Amino acid sequence: MRRTNEFLNAQYMMDDHKIERKEELRDLGLLVDHRMTLIAHMEQTTTKARQSMGYIKWISKGQFGTRALKVLYTSYVRSKLEFASVLWDPHAEVYRNDIESIQKQFVMYALGDTNRIPPYRLTPYEERCGKLGLEKLETRRNVMTCMLAFDLFNGIISDKNIDKRLIKLMTKYNLRDNRLLLETLYLSDYSYNQPIAKVIRNVNEFSDLMMLSRTRFKNEIKGKLGEKRDDI
Questions:
Q1: For the chain: N or C, fewer Cβ within 10 A?
Q2: Pairing outcome for strands 24-27 and 17-18
């Protein structure tokens, strides 16, 4: 498996049996395609999440309260959409919107907005999420990525293959540069948005928070991401 459009389509044999070529492989629950992307995983995940969403609607038949619906949604739908999301979190807007549309569908159903007679103007999506005590899925993924950055930088999670890529800078000799880790120049969007690259950028972006406790860091990050959203 490699990221190239030119494949050597050779046939391999084991005794008299031809070895079957696979276009996709599953590794630790993630579906990786022959171009080393996780697009197939995202598409399969959103399909399964929509199926679970449809099942919730079928068993509830509009009779469940918002609390029961939220428990079902977070347990059977959102959990699927967030499994290992720090690895496959998409940078393409089309995939981010597709994932978010599943929660938008749930929010409309839980609040009864699907039964309104058009034309009916809905309140902003984030306000409706707030009524149910939910956050945007994209916001939750961003927080998870920041938490991974915090855990790796502070040694809460340690892996020698990852640690050797987190090259620390001697910032005390350059007061104008508040970066903590060396950033690599990437030549493609795919490389720029790989998980380790995101971790390094998050450590540098929130360098002033990296020495806080884990709980306080998480609270501060949520506030920072909220401020960013308001500025857009």
A1: C
A2: unpaired
3-state secondary structure the chain: CCCCCCCCCCCCEECCEECCCCCEEEECCEEEECCCCCHHHHHHHHHHHHHHHHHHHHHHCCCCCHHHHHHHHHHHHHHHHHCCHHHHCCCCHHHHHHHHHHHHHHHHHHCCHHHCCCCCCCCCHHHHHHHCCCCCHHHHHHHHHHHHHHHHHCCCCCCHHHHCCCCECCHHHCCCCCCCECCCCCCCHHHHCCHHHHHHHHHHHCHHHCCCCHHHHHHHHHHHHHHHHHHC
Which pLDDT belongs to residue 1? 46
Using one digit for the tens of pLDDT, what is the confidence trace for 35-68? 788 899 999 999 999 999 999 999 998 899 999 9
Which pLDDT band, with edges at 50, 70 and 90, does 21 fall under? confident
Does 52 share its domain with 129? Answer: yes
Structural domain for 58, as ranges: 24-135
| Cα distances (angstroms) measured from residue 26 to each of 89, 184, 197 | 17, 29, 23
Which of 105, 135, 165 is the C-terminal boundary of a domain?
A: 135
**Within a domain: residue 31?**
yes
The domain tally of the chain equals 2
